[in-house]
Amino acid sequence: DIVGFILMFAPINNSPVACFSNQVTTLDDILGDSPAIRSAKKLALKASYANSNVLISGESGTGKELFARGIHYMSQRKYNPFVPVNCAAIPDNLLESELFGYEEGAFTGAKKSGKLGKFDLANNGTIFLDEIGDLQFHLQAKLLRVLQNGVIERVGSEKLIPIDTRIIAATNKDLVKMVEEGKFREDLYYRLNVIPITIPPLRDRGEDIEKIAIALLERYNHKMKKIIAGFDEQ
Predict the structure, then answer these.
(1) HEC states along the chain?
(2) How far apart are CA 134 and CA 145, in angstroms?
(3) How does pLDDT run across 165-223, given as a tens digit for each residue?
């Protein structure tokens, strides 16, 4: 007979989706009071209330993924997965199977059980497609189909699988110019660019530097167990 139960609980980053993301970020975590960053955060907040696709533009290092996370974790999807994918970091011949998954025996070296793709993992949540400008043309067509029909097709399968995934894409490239040069599909660009957000570089918001510097100092004081009071003028 069952006499009783022992239940053990442990917090995991205060998030039920920590297995997909170890960094829960809201827009309040993005530092800065300059007009440029306030404007970007205001637009991102509006985007978090909607369910439309978002295209975040900005130079490398401006915090595009932080904004994407902030939008997700302030949206109705916040209790579902946030799945980041760097389109430039995965070899072209692997990216399709990484995004959409594959069936058993789809190619040499494929797992016998097949594999779920990033879109599967992000179902009912958000997929963040970073460096979307590096996506090869044939994959752009597949992504467009996902946006149009809400279905994915795994490599080695003809079965269409319905999904509900919000897409937030990011780029440091001029996609309009790429469209004009025939390097990026115009129809895909407009499907992604429903809510455009541009992140300003730090050089255009110099008044935010001190606040960011102090926050970093506090973080690394704690991490390195140091007591550094501040910065001199230089």
Answers:
(1) CCCCCCCCCCCCCCCCCCCCCCCCCCHHHCCCCCHHHHHHHHHHHHHHHCCCCEEEECCCCCCHHHHHHHHHHCCCCCCCCEEEEECCCCCHHHHHHHHHCECCCCCCCCCCCCECCHHHHCCCCEEEEECHHHCCHHHHHHHHHHHHHCEEECECCCCEEECCCEEEEEECCCHHHHHHCCCCCHHHHHHHCCEEEECCCHHHCHHHHHHHHHHHHHHHHHHHCCCCCCCCCC
(2) 18
(3) 999 999 999 999 999 999 999 999 999 999 999 999 999 999 999 999 999 999 999 99
**In degrees, to the nearest 5, what angle opens at C-alpha 45 toward C-alphas 170 and 210?**
80
User: Rounded to two decimals, what is the model's pTM?
Assistant: 0.83
Q: What is the pLDDT of residue 16?
A: 31
